[in-house]
Amino acid sequence: EAVRQDGCALEYTAEPLTADRELVLEAVRQYGGALEWAADPLKAARELVLEAVRQDGWALQYAAEPLKADRELVLEAMRQ
Questions:
Q1: What is the per-residue pLDDT across 15-26, written as a single tens digit (0 to 9) for each?
Q2: Mind giving me the DSSP string for 47-58?
Q3: How far apart are CA 36 and CA 62, in angstroms?
Q4: Residue 64 contacts by C-beta under 8 Å, 6 or more apart in sequence?
């Protein structure tokens, strides 16, 4: 519930929940940097990373390596 109110709370969330796509999506929509605490498979989920980058361009640094070279994601990050 805390994550739904404050995306930063993902940092203190138990590991199984950091792999919950819907929960992490809510967190990154509030605070893009919450991507840092997402489970690795979610850091490779393009749609989720795009949401994080739309909220905070700096969130791209927490994405999986292949996504850091994604043209659309990089352009979106630069717009922020």
A1: 888 999 999 999
A2: HHHHHHHHH-GG
A3: 5
A4: 40, 43, 44, 49
